């Protein structure tokens, strides 16, 4: 169990590297899926182009959307984009940074699929076999335009091609595959140059803005996780205290009888300690309506990112950034809060 806990903590602390690894695995899976996939061109003039281009475009779109689905930050981005303004403003640059980060990871698998597909050449051959210059691969002067179109559409299908004496299928296939591989290398070079330019140009701009967006994007992610963990702990403590109070009200006599029999043991002390710890985890929220109000306020009016500084006596010093409505960190400063005591000091000349 400790090993799994350590592994989970490692994944939490290295979430970015873990997500990059997931994207790499998806890229390798896309290449393996294509190699194991049996490509069957319909070899019909009406469907060749649609099928070939569809196999080149539709799977990358699916991999791109799958990358968004597997990324946990998508829901966080949508929540931050759609939440009410409340006490905390929304920075568009942070949202753009989060969206670009998610998109970059999701584009790895589609790029691998397109590259592998173009290098293989089957999809390109199926889509563009009817666009060949027939004069370069044979003499088809006796064929009508419709018959020639049907003959060119059968080039990807070796067992259906019946014009070997008129048109050299092997030469046409080699030509189209060479063109497909050329486009594949060009696409790979374009992606590499784009990634290099992004890496090289980024330091030329203000690093302070980049660090700011990166910091607050990490803060939003960590804040959401800690809020979920705090809600989970509160729910567990609330349920435990509620069940304990229920059993205490139902079986009070049996509980007192067991306490009398076990006066010498420390079980009751342990139960009291656990009960106190559960009470502390409730954080003063002990009613369903109060918890619903807390959750509603967190969604509609998040607290401002301005921390209060506590002195030694535990009293909060009100920050200068408090608004005219008297809100501190998004919470109202009630009149029944702890008031500061005034002291009168007299000095004697004696």
TrEMBL record:
- InterPro entries according to UniProt: CALHM
Q: Name one GO biological process term.
A: ATP export
Do you know which Pfam families this protein is assigned to?
Answer: Ca_hom_mod
Record family assignment: Belongs to the CALHM family.
Query: What name does UniProt use for this protein?
Result: Calcium homeostasis modulator protein 1
User: Region (Disordered): which ranges?
Assistant: 255-279
Q: Which domain of life is it from?
A: Eukaryota
Membrane topology qualifier: Multi-pass membrane protein
- Quote a single Gene Ontology cellular component term: plasma membrane
Q: Where in the cell is it found?
A: Membrane
Instruction: Tell me the organism's taxonomic lineage.
Output: Eukaryota, Metazoa, Chordata, Craniata, Vertebrata
* Keyword Magnesium in record: no
Q: Name one GO molecular function term.
A: monoatomic cation channel activity
Q: What is its main location?
A: membrane
Q: Which organism is it from?
A: Chanos chanos (Milkfish)
Give the residue spans that cross the bilayer. Answer: 21-37, 49-70, 182-201
Alphabetized, the UniProt keywords read:
Ion channel, Ion transport, Membrane, Transmembrane, Transmembrane helix, Transport
